[in-house]
From TrEMBL, chains A, B:
<dbReference type="InterPro" id="IPR013785">
    <property type="entry name" value="Aldolase_TIM"/>
</dbReference>
<feature type="domain" description="Pyruvate carboxyltransferase">
    <location>
        <begin position="8"/>
        <end position="287"/>
    </location>
</feature>
<protein>
    <submittedName>
        <fullName>Hydroxymethylglutaryl-CoA lyase</fullName>
    </submittedName>
</protein>
<comment type="similarity">
    <text>Belongs to the HMG-CoA lyase family.</text>
</comment>
<dbReference type="Pfam" id="PF00682">
    <property type="entry name" value="HMGL-like"/>
</dbReference>
<dbReference type="GO" id="GO:0016829">
    <property type="term" value="F:lyase activity"/>
</dbReference>
<keyword id="KW-0479">Metal-binding</keyword>
<dbReference type="InterPro" id="IPR000891">
    <property type="entry name" value="PYR_CT"/>
</dbReference>
<dbReference type="InterPro" id="IPR043594">
    <property type="entry name" value="HMGL"/>
</dbReference>
<keyword id="KW-0456">Lyase</keyword>
Length: 321, 321
């Protein structure tokens, strides 16, 4: 068990993931209320908005108002997502509230790149050059390499570990060529194709090849293996994860509408804390935020823990009995 | 990875688990249709009914008609559940259709024993003596030791590994004293308290102390860790699991109404087959049976895979594209 980290850092992506696929428009004030509730849980890092085209993601047309409206809490890093120079410009307007960094983002699957980013892989690399230049001109550091569909793809099928590693390699080469100091390699199971052994194999190869880089995992629970895959990541020493409160979200371009999205933050926190791995997050406060997310989104979220209830509550009752 | 088994045997408990908590009565014919659909998936073992008091579990008042009505398939073992001599009598009437065996069943938590079996632990041991004698008189072998609430309890809190092992020990002693040849130790996480390290610890201690016994796991996904816990069991060489199609079920006496029940069979099958562990089950047929279970039970079941769809389907589409 020696590879299990003593602490992990979870990036809460519930607001960004959840609102991008809300069936009916969520009032800006409700989005802000959820972000503020998440700030109070002890979450170290919250992704609060997506500066993407309102035509492609109508749920984030109000990203600017949301970011202007939430109440920043000391010690919490607030991040946002964007894919191009226009998105960066919108984010820059909030550089006092947001922790800004850029990513070199590639997809291991060309088919997904076409669906999600609207470009083939070569086009994606060319576009990344422009985006990196825009970040550098704006003084925003590009510190992360991010590989989407690193474990499989609904459109092209299995992604061999060698292909995932090659995608990391392409992105790292581009980062080096453009003078970006990369600190983290983020691997995303965007469509829920991973299994624990595949996680171990890919993470193992990435860690061996780039030993100086932190590895983070962005896992989806599309087919129910998300938390088992997170456990596999922990076993490989991964100490950074993305997750979404309630399991809110899901990629709008993945071809499996209605499937669960990101792993549920509260289930990841339970997994870690029950094994003595510190998250810094108050699980009961997070579960309460999950119930708020359900009210705000107007639907039952896939998290089992929101139904089962925290062990802390049952432990307290047992002690009192 | 050397402890991962090459094949596992899954007992499908969806019918027994699912119908015991159905909110509205399910017609007997629908129960039979689901059992027949499950028979066609290649499931090696299906628990088809619960011969319990109709007063306590009204959903199984028609157990006799269900067991009389399904179409047995060659090569599939059909089992049923009962807790006392009256239940055994009802099961004996179907000894040509059912694989009959008895269990020495104890709860690691006294509080749960009171809620679920209506007896304290001492009373439970006394009752087990009577039940064992009834099985022996009927010529039904008692081959299994079963420990409920082996990893924690909503009523009494944490169950230390030593307590779980002590419960196994009490049951094994009773089996030896009464001349039962035990072949399997079944550990149940009845209320979803386990985590992967706890599974490894308890299974490890049980395997070390009783090396001649097979260990099986009955895991609930109450708080979202069920499949990660199954993975931990696989890592410890466990090759027998209970699961319920769709994740149907949940214990009616556990104090967390609405929480997910057993791990979903199709998610366990996906986990195993993706890692090269044979289950003998046709996953797409099982997913179809899961959708049938949702229609029969009149509700959406918790399984993520029922929403996300099988990888086989996406792989076929990717090959055709």
């Amino acid at each position: 068990m020696s590879d299990l980290p003593r602490a992990v850092r979870i990036t809460e992506e519930g607001p960004r993931e959840g609102f991008q696929i809300a069936a009916t428009p969520v009032p800006t004030q409700d989005k802000i209320a959820l972000i503020d509730a998440l700030s109070a849980t002890g979450a170290p890092r919250i992704q609060v908005a997506s500066f993407v085209s309102p035509k492609r993601v109508p749920g984030w047309a109000d990203a600017d108002a949301v970011v202007a409206g939430f109440a920043p809490r000391a010690g919490v890093a607030y991040t946002a997502l964007w894919f191009n120079a226009q998105g960066l410009d919108r984010a820059m307007a909030f550089k006092d509230r947001l922790t800004l960094y850029g990513s070199v983002t590639v997809a291991a699957s060309e088919a997904f790149s076409l669906k999600n980013l609207n470009r083939d892989r070569a086009g994606q690399i060319a576009a990344q050059r422009e985006t990196i230049a825009a970040h550098q001109a704006a003084g925003v550091p590009v510190t992360r390499v991010s590989v989407q569909a690193a474990f499989g793809c609904n459109f092209s099928g299995d992604v061999a570990p060698a292909r995932a590693v090659a995608a990391v390699s392409e992105a790292m080469a581009l980062a080096e060529e453009t003078g970006c100091a990369i600190e983290k390699i983020a691997l995303a199971d965007t469509m829920g194709w991973a299994n624990p052994l595949l996680i171990e194999r890919v993470v193992g190869e990435v860690r061996s090849r780039w030993p100086g880089q932190a590895v983070s995992l962005h896992l989806h629970d599309t087919r129910g293996l998300g938390i088992a895959n997170a456990m596999a990541g922990l076993r490989m020493g991964v100490a950074e994860f993305d997750a979404a409160v309630g399991g809110a979200g899901g990629c709008p371009f993945a071809g499996h509408a209605g499937a669960p999205g990101n792993i549920a933050t509260e289930e990841l926190v339970l997994l870690c804390e029950e094994m003595g791995i510190a998250t810094g997050i108050d699980l009961d406060a997070l579960i309460a935020a999950g119930h708020l997310a359900e009210r705000v989104l107007g639907r039952t979220l896939p998290s089992a823990l929101l139904r089962g209830g925290s062990l802390a509550g049952f432990r307290a009752k047992a002690r009192a009995a």
